[in-house]
Amino acid sequence: xxxxxEFTLGGLAFGMIYAAIALSLxxxxxxxxxxxxxxxxxxxxxxxxxxxVIQHTGNYWLGFAVALASGLVLGATAERTxxxxxxxxxxxxxxxVTIGLLVLLEGVAGMIYGGQFKSFPPAFSxxxxxIGHTALGISANDLFTAGAVLVAALLLAALFQFTSVGLRLRxxxxxxxxxxxxxxxxxxxxxxxxxxxxxxxxxxxxxVTPQTFLYPNSMDAIFVLGFTAAVIGxxxxxxxxxxxxxxxxxxxxxxxxxxxxxxVDLFGLLxxxxxxxxxPAGLFSPSATRQV
Length: 292
Known about the structure:
ABC transporter involved in vitamin B12 uptake, BtuC
């Protein structure tokens, strides 16, 4: 029973990382109908920026803040310079461009920082918490990770539901042509959507890297699982991306705990294939999809 509790709590904590990646993918998909295959690379690069700041200043929170700011800037820059020329082109153009951006980011990171594995410091202690004599299987840093992603998700929900900026973002995503007729600067809204996705991706990178290592390809496997979470929840649903991340975190935690960590990534790919075969629109997809 204690083992099951540890796997459950650990799975929920790690599932929030998948949820963050999934949420960043959903933000971009809703606005541009593009799947950003470079999202993992963007998260990796901003984490390297945070690593450099922490190494030079010894201040974790300064590095954390710089990473989030770098994610905003990188997301906006990518949309303006690389993505906008292919936004209304055939879908394969966007696939090729985003994969090319991933290769570019990983190559530049390798040239600047090298290919060696680097340890990234956690925000809080990674020592497991206990209640009495019962080990919970999670640490204070895991709680911070789950809380940070949850707060980010709630802030995004508030932005979309209760602010004029959120209304313009939703209008631009739903029908860009109608939004333009109503005076919405759709181009700026799309740039903002990519910037927000870059910020969420940077948050995921900084939070997950203390549990792995930092190197140019460090986010590739995490991206695949985050993409799986987005598909499970439905690419149209921010809430579904969070739920999908938590479900995937639980399942992979049980698989890793009972069957071995070596099959976790393989099982994640299997889940992705099954979801695409059985319910490709996702568990939280609307009953009717909008026309684009």
